[in-house]
Amino acid sequence: MTELDTITNPSDPAVQRIIDVTKPSRSSIKTTLIEDTEPLMHCITAGVEFIEVYGSDGTPFPPELLELCGRHDVPVRLIDSSIVNRLFKGERKAKAFGIARVPRPARFSDIESRNGDVVVLDGVKIVGNIGAIVRTSLALGASGIILVDSDITSIADRRLQRASRGYVFSLPVVLSGREEAIAFIQDSGMRMMTLSAGGDLSVKELGEIPDRLALLFGSEKGGPSELFEKASSASVSIPMAGTTESLNVSVSLGIALHERIHRNLAAGR
């Protein structure tokens, strides 16, 4: 295995960079901390630019990550374990972590350039759900996600990165207002279909529509906003046993996109 340099001085600029990037009060987020081997590898493969990747000298550095960093010219160093303990005091300590430059915010044009269905989340605020939706949307061929009223101000949010396992940089995730989102969908010629109980169509019928769609999911408590409901072409429901009140929004999305899988994967090719 390649011999890696070890940071032993707490005053090393890299240590200060990590301290700065983990401050919750930052007003301008230009760099972000990516944690754990799998998210790091996903982000590097997606083309995210890394300043440096680190590991603790008390833990073997993952060889597959080291090999990937080498292929992408990403610098790697170890940090003395006592410094790592101070950096992440009270937090779970990842085996590997890195400082990356935050990519430019995704735009509607990034979604428009792709051919899969568009996922619209209206008022979905639980970061764990959003992260799961990112992974599922990528796996099942969606072209992008529009987040409305999510309370997330940047996709570089550490909670979202953790919940998505680093996939949040692998497809366009646009933060938008309701009016802007509706205008984009209408200008693109897409029909917007709302997932709700007692819908006009069954989820099986959703899978038979050949056109590109915008699939709207509201919050579990309140559902989609009135503005989105008025702009929606139809509603779609998922059959459930009578004893079940509702499905988790990420589960509902997975079911809907699975019905659309053949259309979206063909469009992606």
From TrEMBL:
Which UniProt key words apply to this protein? Answer: Methyltransferase, Transferase
Boundaries of every Thiostrepton-resistance methylase N-terminal domain copy: 5-113
Task: Work out whether the entry's keyword set contains Transferase.
Answer: yes
Q: Name one GO biological process term.
A: methylation
Q: Name one GO molecular function term.
A: methyltransferase activity
Please provide an example of a Pfam family that matches this protein in its UniProt record.
TSNR_N
Query: What region holds the tRNA/rRNA methyltransferase SpoU type domain?
Result: 118-258
Keyword Methyltransferase on entry: yes
Matches recorded under CDD domains: SpoU-like_NHR
| InterPro entries to which the protein is assigned, alphabetical | Alpha/beta_knot_MTases (IPR029028), Ribosomal_eL30-like_sf (IPR029064), rRNA_Methyltransferase (IPR051259), SpoU_MeTrfase (IPR001537), Thiostrepton-R_Mease_TSNR_N (IPR006795), tRNA_m1G_MTases_N (IPR029026)
Query: What is the name of the protein in this document?
Result: NshR/TsnR family 23S rRNA methyltransferase
Species for this entry: Streptomyces chitinivorans
Q: Which gene encodes it?
A: nshR
